[in-house]
Amino acid sequence: MRRLGLNEIREEYLEFFESKGHLRLKSYPLIPNNDKSLLLINAGMAPLKDYFTGVKKMSKNRATSSQKCIRTADIDNVGKTQRHGTFFEMLGNFSFGDYFKREAITWAWEFLTEKLEMDKNLLSVTVYEEDDEAYDIWRNEVGLSAEKIQRLGKEDNFWELEVGPCGPCSEIMYDRGEKYTNPDDRFMEIWNLVFTQFNKMEDGRYEKLQNPNIDTGMGLERTNCILQGKTSVYLTEVFTPIIEKIEELSGYKYGTDGEKDKSV
Ligand code: GLY
Known about the structure:
alpha+beta, 9 strands, 9-stranded mixed sheet, binds glycine, 30% helix
């Protein structure tokens, strides 16, 4: 596995998807523009909803970005787990009615195993329980063994915001080894591939989208954590200077008291 830094991972990701014909986008601001359903941008796809529904068009029908996000729904996990942050960057590749599951899955695999050189044996995936198409691509085209592909229900493998484009998804996990006793820390989710097929309306109805889309979200800080072999995202290069400053101001040494670590 390559020991890349955070800026290198971001650049390699964007370059990789540019080489697959994607338009490189800048991160949108954290404050949503014209979206009453969100207080803050919480996913790479959130500022792109109008492109998924076809209301707006870009110069290309595929794009890639590293989007600044704040995910308030996860806030109770921040400080407790090794992988949740309030503010983070989400790497994403998006298809607006262009490519679909096959490309999204095989490119994700290519990026992880060939560009980042992750060990194939340490990767496993989940798919939505009814999604035979995604299962077959992982099983027959990528060549994952059946025990590395888990089928899960709507709660785990259907991705949606309050309103807007949504659909079944497939998550990719990296096995960090038996020393992590919490399964979610051991099998760390690094990438979510969403097969956007519906538009969730304000009244809760799911309307079928005219063209199926792709929306993926890969955690930049989590990937950095794995590549650098750190136990927690907080021990990676973007967080350590902040933690050191807090230590200096508070006189508290991070890592000595679980409760106080949460506050840090
Ligand atoms: N939109 C994909 C994700 O946030 O996981």
